[in-house]
Design brief:
Layout: E1 23-24, E2 35-40, E3 45-50, E4 56-60, H1 67-88, E5 101-105, E6 111-115
Antiparallel strand pairs: 1-2, 2-3, 3-4, 5-6
């Protein structure tokens, strides 16, 4: 007995990878695609700036870094400053209560902490015995 003939397949082309985004939503003004990133790999710095509100951030990068990494470092830095501000005010409940806080340094080196108000998803008169009610 002989072997079965294999069906001839045409060679498949390489799958094209989608490029990583380089513009993002701003944490402070909530504008979509207003934050752009620039990487200077020779100098080892990554810069992020918002076109709408003017917020800026700078971090160190390496040869593997991309714009997404600079944006995630910015989010981490904002969260760290928010936690630090929450503990400095003496609130024992910790960072879960202060999810709307974010901070960044402006060009003068001053820290700026902003709070976003959280609204109830169900509304103020929801008759749910405390579920979905905004505590602020």
């Amino acid at each position: 007995m002989g072997k079965r003939k294999k069906s001839s397949r045409k060679p498949q082309g390489k799958k094209k990878k989608d490029p990583l985004p380089s513009t993002f939503a701003c944490l402070f003004c909530n504008h979509e695609n207003s934050v752009s990133t620039k990487l200077d790999k020779k100098a080892g710095t990554g810069e992020l700036s918002c076109k709408s509100c003017g917020q800026q951030f700078q971090t160190s990068v390496n040869y593997l870094s991309s714009g997404v990494d600079v944006y995630s470092d910015w989010i981490d830095a904002c969260d760290a400053v928010a936690k630090e501000a929450a503990y400095a005010t003496g609130d024992a409940e910790g960072p879960t209560q202060y999810q709307g806080h974010a901070a960044v340094q402006d060009s003068g080196g001053h820290s700026d902490v902003r709070e976003s108000r959280h609204m109830s998803i169900l509304g103020e008169d929801d008759d749910m015995d405390g579920y979905g009610v905004d505590d602020s």
